[in-house]
Amino acid sequence: MLKNDLLLRAARGEQTERTPVWLMRQAGRILPEYRALRAKLSGFKELVETPDLAAEVTIQPIDALDVDAAIIFSDILVVPEAMGLTYEMVEARGPLFPQTVQSAADVDRLRVADPHEHLGYVLDAIRVTKRALGGRVPLIGFAGAPWTILAYMVEGHGSKTFSKARRMLFQDPELAHRLLRKITDTTIAYLRAQIEAGANLVQVFDSWAGILNPEHYHEFSARYIQEICAAMPADTPVTVFAKGAFFAHQDFAQMPCRTIGLDWNEDPRHVRQLVGDKTLQGNLDPCALYGSPEQVRAATVAMLERFGPQRHIANLGHGVYPDTNPDRVKVFIETVKEHSLRMRQDLG
Ligand SMILES: Cc1c2[nH]c(c1CCC(=O)O)Cc1[nH]c(c(CCC(=O)O)c1C)Cc1[nH]c(c(CCC(=O)O)c1C)Cc1[nH]c(c(C)c1CCC(=O)O)C2
Fold first, then answer.
1. 303 φ/ψ angles, rounded to the nearest 5 degrees
2. Does 3.20.20.210 match the CATH number of domain 6-286+310-324?
3. In sequence order, what DSSP letters do the residues of 27-63 get, joined into one string?
4. What pairs with residue 141 in β-bridges?
5. C-alpha dihedral over 81, 179, 254, 228, to 10 degrees?
6. Taking the model in full, what pTM does it have?
């Protein structure tokens, strides 16, 4: 039994006494206690692959920030690794795949991973975290959207344009679909296993949605996300966060998911008209947290008013930036709690 189930109720579209709040990328990065633990280890992967440590880092923001959800400490790139493509996390630079996917032979070599065999460390981390949380807040599981995973597997590292990955969509769409098929099958099994291990809600991150043209987004991304959503157990809410996909609201309106994540470029009042009765998540500009406490408070209040009191999960419009002052994050969280309560009292 959960002591605080605001997130799940908001995701299901039920009335809540206040708006739940958490932050994308809340685990790690901004917390001194994360940096202290991280400094003692060989690197990011040791943290991700050691369930007790991953659980500890997952719970740090619950203690430090008093958010309404935990998100399992892991990375979207564990999926390509489970399929046979190892990644490295290069200090201060980001992910790197020494081998990339270019040819039909490369796709054939990849396996559809069995999550119990190849991603057992994540499932163990979820189990340890659940036990340690003792029902304080729900635990969010996650995976990358197939398109975003393909982008890293083909490109080999982060990029502003991902032009190698997008080139494949133009030059060899069939090959892209074969790769997306394997990623999607792996992701469905992986997210289902996360839910069995204890994840209460799962989020699909399509971080590179915004660089596709609308036709390609429909053909190479949305249909696979749709399939993933449809394959989840009916009682587990799914959130789809497709950064920059303002052109794809029609796709999202039909998506069998409960919640749509919005980046900070979007106006929730406009999106509400387009996607029907879904819950919306977001969408404060992460840079708003560089302001003074008064400015953070004002920006947060304005955001809450745009979403309205119900069917909203407060968050940033993307992950929190590493150099953000945790005290400003606290102002954001406290303002959501106080002001969303007040919005309901004003109504009642
Ligand atoms: C694109 C993407 C990645 N990873 C992820 C995405 C999708 C979300 C998004 O768009 O931001 C998802 C992710 N990565 C991480 C989480 C942990 C849970 C959370 O707190 O949200 C989550 C949900 C830990 C992480 N993943 C990474 C770190 C930093 C590693 C470190 O400790 O040095 C953390 C805490 C590394 C990572 N991982 C990735 C990149 C590009 C980088 C390097 C730059 C960066 O720091 O974001 C790939």
1. -60, -45
2. yes
3. SSTT-HHHHHHHHTSS-HHHHHH-HHHHHHHHHHHHH
4. 202
5. -40
6. 0.97
* Closest residue CA from atom 2 of ligand 1: 76
How confident is the model over 275-327, as pLDDT tens digits?
Answer: 989 999 999 999 999 999 999 999 999 999 999 999 999 999 999 999 999 99
The residue ranges of DSSP E strands in 82-162, in sequence order, are 88-90, 94-96, 139-144
- 319 C-alpha to center of ligand 1: Å? 8
How far apart are the C-alpha atoms of 307 and 40, rounded to whole Å? 42
Question: Do 4 and 68 meet the contact criterion of CB atoms below 8 Å apart?
Answer: yes
pLDDT in tens, 75-125: 999 999 999 999 999 988 999 999 999 999 999 999 999 999 999 999 999
Angstrom distance (rounded) from CA 247 to CA 254: 14
Strand 139-144 relative to strand 201-206: parallel, antiparallel, unpaired?
A: parallel
Annotated binding site for substrate: 25-29, 75, 152, 207, 318
The CA-CA-CA angle for residues 20, 58, 234, to 5°, reads 55
Distance in angstroms (rounded) separating the CA atoms of residues 180 and 79:
12
Query: Nearest residue CA, atom 36 of ligand 1?
Result: 94
> If you take atom 42 of ligand 1, which residue's CA is the nearest one?
94
Name 213's Cβ contacts closer than 8 Å, sequence gap at least 6: none
By annotation, the residues acting in catalysis are 25, 29, 38, 75, 152
Q: pLDDT for 319-348, tens place per residue? A: 999 999 999 999 999 999 999 999 998 876
